[in-house]
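LOG
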Amino acid sequence: MDGCPPTPLFTFGVIADIQYADLEDGFNYSRTRKRFYRSSLQLLKNAQRSWAESAVRPEFILQLGDIIDGFNKGPGASERALDTVLREFSGPAEVHHVWGNHEFYNFSRSALLRSRLNSSALHRDRDLSGDVYAYSFSPAPGFTFVVLDAYDVSLLGREPSSEQYGQAMDLIKLYNNNDDLNCPPVLEGLQRRFTMFNGGFGQEQLDWLHALLTASDDKRDRVTIVSHVPVHPGSTDPVCLAWNYEELLAVIRAHSSVVCYMAGHSHDGGYCQDKDTGVHHVTIDGVIETPPDSDAFSTVSVYADRMLLKGEGRVEDRVFLFPS
């Protein structure tokens, strides 16, 4: 922290993949990793207590998706689980909710747009169509955060009769011929990303992001992009990568304003710095696979030339120097 002023310009909290359910511990889809459904709520409480007791309290919280687990799906259970978790987010800091695959296991896209998980109400960009969940906000002069919809192109949350569902099915079937589309099509390599629990970014959203970043370039803003699904192969296991990650990376690489991309989804976390742009790609470790005696959240302090991520428990400390 040498050279940094004692007080940051602002701070924010980050937490990912809580996946709460009122269930005994279980395992992941392939039964290789233990999941702590009920105790994930206590880890969220630990994070909230830490943020509340910080000398500099976070301006906002980034909740990077999968707030409750798909096992809650059922009459009334999804709403009860969501109420339980959102009660813990009732502090003074604004919460920006990202949508992941487990949101769509529990709710339709139209239901999510009407729910308390739609945090875009005060920030909505009118250039986007009604059901694309993407928006931007500025917590301080010179800084912009962009929330992206990684399931804009997806089999999740779309009606099977819709044009978007048909387009997503056509795309995934080019690479995955398994009866179970949650099963990766290959054992190794980037093609593993073509599963039903991933998704992609539609052309309208990509065009909107390009226009937003063009304006940010002109203003010399520092832009952080957040979404549920990682987009850099160096920051995640390929099975958790966005379907059209190359297109999103191409947009980022065409602009000078982006400094960081934050995601969840891959529960072991990850990090890389893009060699061409210097953009930091960080994937935050998931609460759901964190033992009850540990933690998985972080607090990010923002300065004029860097962001300092202070991790707790499984989450590593990191320094994100802004590209020159």
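LOG (cont.) second protein
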Amino acid sequence: MDETLAEFIKRTILKIPMTEMMTVLKAWDFLSEKQLQTVNFRQRKESLVHDLVLLCEEKRASVHDAALLDIIYTQFHRHQKVWDVFQMSKEPGEDIDLFDMEQFKSSFVKILRRALRNVTVSFRDAEENSVWIRIAWGTQYRKPNQYKPVYVVYYSQTPYVFTSSCQLKSNIPLLGQALTVASNHHKIVKMDLRSRYLDSLKAIVFKQYNRNFETHNTTVPLQERTLELDIHMDSRIIHENRIEKERVQRVTQETFGDYPQPRLEFAQYKLETKFKSDFNGDILAERKEPLRCLIKFSSPHLLEALKALAPAGIADAPLSPLLTCIPNKGMNYFKIRDK
């Protein structure tokens, strides 16, 4: 094992929190239980990492072994990535083929390496017939950069693919080609949907809303924050009309349901409109270019925050369809233009 690989393994292990170290290493399943028992996990992290790297050297770890460890770490900390969603499609009338995961992997690697010699591709099978793919890009003259990979999560026999943000934008078409050909699809398009919460994106595109979602770093549940607002609210602005409260509650439940919402951090709206005026010769009316405006709603849990607006008396019910349609449309990027 050369110094470059040893350094890559060292940096990967250093990222793992001490509380998760044993769990991640056991999931990796590269070092045996007997080898792990020889390591003192109570020593300083730098010393622990040094001992683990020595064990990897003794066992002659490869780049793919190290890449697999990186995939496992990323699975544990998927919220640290920003995930985009791509949707694939078949030709009209095209039959659904029987899917073979091993054939998919082989075809995927062949397509990438046919176009790019220096690329590292690693796979890890996961739950629900999904596969995690890690791609470290190189160039025709440079080895793959293991520190800036792109991660892909594909659920077999579905048209949806989730990818972490790719810094090398020029490689996105090649990645799309490899995915469509390997999965027997014809076309791939990027959806206007993005979030750090992979499970929530999956729930939106697969219409699986009535379930629990990732809640990393949620300091106070929304129900508690809403209750706190009611307790400290000025008595002069408390709604006395019980019928109106019931109407708001009913409309909110009809709009959002009574289950936890998928977790998104923002929704962005781009408005393009021509200026309209009744006055002749108005400078803006003569402008050929449309007026452009960008509005962004942000929250640690945007959909739950929107759901709480009307019951808290902050907004009227029902909310605008532009805000409530996010899960149904599978979008949190919107472009609004004149009809």
